[in-house]
Amino acid sequence: FVKECTRMNKSNDGDPYRYQSNTDLLNTLNNYRADEEEYLDSISQNLQRTIVTAKDMNAHINEHTKLLGEIDNRVQNTTTNIQGETKRIQVVSTRAKVGFLWCIIVLLIIAIVIIFFVL
Questions:
Q1: How far is it, in rounded angstroms, from Cα 101 to Cα 97?
Q2: CB within 8 A of 4, min separation 6: which ones?
Q3: Residue 8: CB partners within 8 Å, gap ≥ 6?
Q4: Rounded to the nearest 5 degrees, what angle is found at the Cα of 29, between the Cα atoms of 41 and 17?
Q5: What is the dihedral of CA 96, 97, 99, 100, to 10 degrees?
Q6: DSSP code string of 75-94
Q7: Which of 81, 104, 77 shows the shortest CA–CA distance to 89?
Q8: How far apart are CA 24 and CA 32, in angstroms?
Q9: What pLDDT score does 2 carry?
Q10: What is the mean pLDDT of residues 7-20?
């Protein structure tokens, strides 16, 4: 189509269709329409494939969004559990330190008592 128009526009008389009969002009127009229909059909097929692809992508995105929501909930639950366990460890650690200090105090008292009785 483009080549035909370019060839016709290069003619010296300015009207590329001047020497064509009505039948030739009609055939040329029909050829152009057929080409346009072919191009439009091709575009339509590409659009249909694009629509199918977009729907598939949308389904995958929705599934991934659901999975990410579940992961987020699990991460929040795990974070809460870790914070609770950290507090428990701090309490146990504090109690262990206090118990260790009492143990040292008792041992020192025993050592002092032994020293006084031995001397």
A1: 6
A2: 28
A3: 16, 17
A4: 150
A5: 110
A6: HHHHHHHHHHHHHHHHHHHH
A7: 81
A8: 12
A9: 47
A10: 60
Whole-model pTM over 0.70? no
Task: Report the pLDDT averaged over residues 62-73.
Answer: 96
How far, in whole angstroms, is CA 110 from its chain's centroid? 69
User: Within 10 Å of residue 8's Cβ, how many Cβ atoms?
Assistant: 14
Decide: 17 and 8 in contact? Cβ < 8 Å: yes
Encode 94-119: b = buried (16+ Cβ within 10 Å), e = exposed. Answer: eeeeeeeeeeeeeeeeeeeeeeeeee
7 — pLDDT class (breaks 50, 70, 90): low
CA pair distance 36, 43, nearest whole angstrom: 10
